[in-house]
């Protein structure tokens, strides 16, 4: 089983990936975790590193190729990242999570101990940066969700409900 989970910042992709990994005994490969790790290694904020990635296509391309390579050599994996659904051709199930920006910002602000207002501004900047990069590098419109098997608004459900809904869909989809 190969599952991809994508979504905008704060939509719950990491939470869902962890819960599904436990339920289905899968390994999680997170593009976001790798990106954050690289930002720390460069002594940059996520925002600063995102702007560097706008100028240096190799950053995104290496992350995307790394996920593709892992997916080619592994089964029983969850690939979590905004572009994973586009690059993992033999994915069993492609999932996209969404939620209104205010909900996503509140989640991130709580996690990062920031204000919601500050977080909304950071999310907007990050999303614009990423959308521009994906369009320039891959001619992808990140807002085109046609490739996804499941699209779920996580603002409507608790973490447990989201996991239950997606687990049921994944289980039925793989049969």
From TrEMBL:
ATP binds at residues 7-15. One of its GO terms (molecular function) is dCMP kinase activity. Belongs to the cytidylate kinase family. Type 2 subfamily. GO terms for cellular component: cytoplasm. It comes from Candidatus Argoarchaeum ethanivorans. Its main location: cytoplasm. It is found in: Cytoplasm. Pfam families: Cytidylate_kin2. InterPro entries: Cyt_kin_arch, Cytidylate_kinase_dom, P-loop_NTPase. It catalyses: CMP + ATP = CDP + ADP; dCMP + ATP = dCDP + ADP. Its EC number is 2.7.4.25. One of its GO terms (biological process) is pyrimidine nucleotide metabolic process. The keyword ATP-binding applies. This is Cytidylate kinase. Keywords: ATP-binding, Cytoplasm, Kinase, Nucleotide-binding, Transferase. It comes from the Archaea.
């Amino acid at each position: 089983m190969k599952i991809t989970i994508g979504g905008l910042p704060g939509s719950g992709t990491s939470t869902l990936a962890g819960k599904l990994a436990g339920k289905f005994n899968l390994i999680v490969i997170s593009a976001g975790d790798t990106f954050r790790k690289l930002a720390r290694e460069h002594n940059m904020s996520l925002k600063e590193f995102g702007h560097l990635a706008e100028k240096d296509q190799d950053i995104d391309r290496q992350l995307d190729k790394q996920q593709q390579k892992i997916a080619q050599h592994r089964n029983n994996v969850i690939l979590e990242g905004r572009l994973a659904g586009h690059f993992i051709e033999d994915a069993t199930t492609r999932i996209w999570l969404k939620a209104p920006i205010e909900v996503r910002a509140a989640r991130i602000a709580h996690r990062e101990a920031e204000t919601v207002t500050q977080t909304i501004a950071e999310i907007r900047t990050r999303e614009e940066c990423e959308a521009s990069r994906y369009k320039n590098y891959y001619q992808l419109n990140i807002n085109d969700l046609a490739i996804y098997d499941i699209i779920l608004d996580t603002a409507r459900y608790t973490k447990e409900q989201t996991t239950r809904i997606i687990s049921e869909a994944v289980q039925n989809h793989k049969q």
